[in-house]
Amino acid sequence: MPTSAAGFISRIDQLKGDLVAQGRRVQQLTEAAFEAMFECSHEKARAVINQDDAIDSVDVLIEKQAVLLLSDATRQGAELEPQQLRAVLTIVKVNNELERSADVAVEIAQRVETSPARPYPDTFRVMANSVIGILRDANTSMARGDPALANIVLQSQHAVSAFKDAVMRDAEAQLASGTISPDFAFLLHEVASDCEIIADHCTNIAEQVIYLTTGAIVRHGQTSWVEVGKSRSA
């Protein structure tokens, strides 16, 4: 049975709802991964790792539903508006960024199972909280279609990079003084890099939100985020 224009809009809305739910799922996974790390809990780390398959399944389902929607629209000659097409493409791209973010959270959990049970620097906790906040804001900006909040996500990336630099300077000083082992210093570097990668995925989500809601194409310059173009259909 052919799908009406209203039917396609309803399907896009459903896809967005599924994406928002996936974003919350990934945020919860990331919070749990950091919690396992700070508590040096192998049990909590394994619980995070075991959730990866569920997130992968939703990722595949969202992509399949998006492809099916576009296939149905093409087959039925439906005249989707440019904004509706952008919405579907944005959902696919954001879905991919969320799945990759979840992969990084799982990697953090996997490091718990092989890392020494010792306290992490306080700066690490601040950085982890910042990453969780950025992920939350990226999800909220997508759910609300809020380009202003998406812009805040873009600017927040610099804070994570600054935290990483501070963590690495402190680790180098402690390594030189013999306070920490080379293995633990390497672990700090790896997890700090993981935090930066998650923040990068969040900024990619924010870019897509801005593009979807305003048509503006933003990219990261040497020191700041700048608009490099505008969609012709915006």
Could you characterize the architecture of this molecule?
With 234 residues, the chain is mainly alpha-helical. It has one domain (5-230): Methane Monooxygenase Hydroxylase, Chain G, domain 1. The chain contains seven helices and two strands; from the N terminus they run H-H-H-H-H-H-H-E-E. The protein has helices spanning 5-39, 42-50, 52-75, 82-112, 122-144, 147-177, 182-214; strands at 216-220, 225-230. Strands 1-2 form a two-stranded antiparallel sheet. Strand 1 (216-220) and strand 2 form a beta hairpin. The two termini are 32 Å apart. The mean pLDDT is 88.
- Please give the count of helices: 7
CATH topology: Methane Monooxygenase Hydroxylase, Chain G, domain 1
Biggest sheet: strands side by side, in what order? 1-2
Mean pLDDT: 88
Give the CATH H-level superfamily: Phosphate transport system protein phou homolog 2, domain 2
Could you say how many structural domains there are in total? Answer: 1
CATH class term? Mainly Alpha
Based on Cα principal axes, name the global outline: elongated
Describe the structure in brief.
With 234 residues, this protein is mainly alpha-helical. It is 79% helix and 5% strand.
State the main characteristics.
7 helices, elongated, Methane Monooxygenase Hydroxylase, Chain G, domain 1, about 230 residues, mainly alpha
Summarize the helices and strands and which ones pair or pack.
Layout: H1 5-39, H2 42-50, H3 52-75, H4 82-112, H5 122-144, H6 147-177, H7 182-214, E1 216-220, E2 225-230
Antiparallel strand pairs: 1-2
Helix pairs in contact: 1-2, 1-3, 1-4, 1-5, 2-4, 3-4, 4-7, 5-6, 5-7, 6-7
